[in-house]
Amino acid sequence: MKVIVFDEQHEDDLTNAINAWIEDNAPKICEIRFSTCAFALQQEQIYCFSALILYEEE
Question: Taking the model in full, what pTM does it have?
C-alpha cells in the first residue's frame, strides 16, 4: 500500500489535481481522507484543502 497527499488553496484545484493523478496512474484506491482548514494572514483569509489517498498500484 502507498500514500499520496494533495494540498491546494481552492477546492476545484484539489479536484483537478486528484482527477489528473487518477487518470495518469489508474490506481486501486483503498481510502481517501479529506481535510480543510482556514486562517487569517494580514487580514486575508487563507484556505487549505487537502486529501490523503491510500492506494495500491495495479
Answer: 0.86
